[in-house]
Write a structure and sequence with these properties.
four-stranded antiparallel sheet; 7 helices; 9 strands; about 200 residues; binds adenosine-5'-triphosphate; five-stranded parallel sheet; Rossmann fold; alpha/beta; binds magnesium ion
Length: about 200
């Protein structure tokens, strides 16, 4: 079980008595806008600390795991993707740099661009990318890190349905190939139905 939540309370936003998020399954969090989905993701990688109750990662309370170490294993893409550097390549390498891993080879970089279906050159300026292209760049960046868990906050919200399907299919396959667990917050029934092996509805406290 990667995550178990017990008697969790966070501000007046979330109250979750019990939640088990399973290993080796792609999980989707769904729920209305404002329900607390993004907040829950931030609790899972310790950007927020619960007011009450506990979150366990593989049996260990998050309280006992150093935040920086945790975030190398449990990597989040925020709802509004950030840029990390001037070029596509710098952005892709940044996650590895942050987790003190060796840089990716050119071949790995090209392969990851293909997985996330971003038809750009490594030297292209990332500032010029559209919102949907930035989302795919973020997906590529985290994929290179091969983390234990991916927390993806509406990673395809700016993509058309066909691109969304193609990108998520390849992304989930790539994550599974290294035993990475994927948790996706989504408003897309399309994504939840196709990739949600476990669908968890988040409701406001
Ligand atoms: N740091 C914070 N302090 C206080 N309230 C917050 C904070 N962050 C979010 N909220 C509130 O908590 C509620 C849940 O926000 P959250 O961003 O988790 O919702 P969400 O389910 O991700 O919504 P959406 O689908 O629109 O992204 C909202 O009412 C929001 O205004
Ligand atoms: Mg949100």
């Amino acid at each position: 079980m990667p995550f178990t939540l017990r008697n969790l309370v966070y501000k007046d936003i979330l109250k979750i008595d019990r939640m088990d998020i399973h290993e080796n399954k792609t999980s989707c969090f769904i729920g209305e806008s404002g329900a607390g989905k993004s907040t829950l993701l931030k609790l899972l990688n310790k950007m927020y600390i619960p007011d009450e109750g506990n979150i366990y990662y593989k049996g260990t309370s998050l309280e006992e795991i150093e935040a920086v170490k945790l975030r190398r294993k449990i990597v989040m893409i925020p709802q509004n993707p950030l840029l990390f550097g001037e070029t596509v390549e710098e952005n892709l390498q940044k996650g590895l740099l942050f987790s003190e891993k060796p840089p990716a080879s050119r071949w790995d970089l090209e392969r990851v661009l293909e997985i996330v279906q971003l038809g750009k050159n490594l030297q292209d300026q990332s500032e010029k990318l559209s919102g949907g292209e930035r989302q795919r760049l973020s997906l590529g960046r985290v994929l290179l890190m091969k983390p234990e868990v991916y927390l993806l906050d509406e990673p395809t919200s700016a993509l058309d349905e066909e691109t969304e399907s193609n990108v998520m299919k390849k992304f989930v396959e790539a994550a599974k190939s290294h035993d990475g667990k994927v948790i996706i917050v989504t408003h897309s029934m399309n994504v939840a139905e196709q990739y949600g092996e476990e669908v968890i509805r988040i409701t406001k406290r």
